[in-house]
Inverse folding.
């Protein structure tokens, strides 16, 4: 499974990159606005930190405008994936950008049918939002299982990027279902390192070693 950071914070991305486990970054206009940054400038900065896929989202809802903006975003760096909404216009843009050799990430997926449409349009990635489904008492992981089965039936090359991850357990469950990518806030990835028994074990080793030195 590939790990992406869902953030536009450069310090957080640099810290995660040091671990050697960061495979890419997902962003959106909201995350970039929170950093007080310009969209194109921030995408370029992120692409200088990681050579993995960096999802840059369009800011329009009209297919023709998405296509033109997508071309500009893709020209910022070779590892930019154009992030498009799961709408009729978004699927048109996905199809056209794919024909141009531009990689895409179709986002805001909430059903297997939507994921199927995106795959047929040539999406490189699809982003089902499991946390938001859980929030309305739906089973987000059941959606990942459905999409995985549908894609396996037809040998689609589109990868499943699990988004709206809220905790480390979401990552475990997504990996168990065979999802290709998990994108998560930096703090969730940091929490994956933690376990109270690990902390107790390290403290015990330290205590024992200190005793040997006396």
């Amino acid at each position: 499974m590939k790990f992406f950071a869902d953030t536009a914070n450069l310090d957080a991305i640099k810290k995660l990159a040091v671990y050697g486990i960061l495979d890419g970054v997902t962003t959106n206009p909201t995350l970039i606005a929170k950093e007080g940054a310009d969209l194109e400038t921030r995408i370029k900065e992120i692409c200088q930190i990681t050579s993995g896929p960096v999802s840059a989202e369009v800011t329009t809802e009209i297919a023709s405008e998405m296509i033109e903006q997508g071309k500009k975003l893709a020209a910022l760096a070779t590892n930019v994936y154009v992030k498009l909404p799961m709408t009729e216009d978004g699927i048109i843009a996905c199809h056209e950008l794919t024909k141009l050799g531009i990689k895409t990430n179709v986002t805001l997926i909430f059903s297997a049918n939507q994921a199927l449409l995106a795959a047929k349009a040539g999406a490189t990635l699809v982003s089902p939002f499991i946390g938001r489904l859980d929030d309305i008492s739906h089973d987000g992981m059941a959606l990942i299982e459905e999409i995985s089965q549908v894609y396996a039936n037809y040998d689609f090359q589109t990868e499943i990027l699990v988004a709206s991850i809220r905790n480390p357990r979401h990552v475990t469950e997504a990996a168990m279902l065979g999802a290709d990518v998990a994108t998560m806030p930096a703090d969730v990835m940091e929490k994956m390192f933690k376990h109270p028994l690990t902390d107790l074990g390290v403290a015990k080793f330290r205590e024992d070693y200190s005793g040997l030195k006396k």
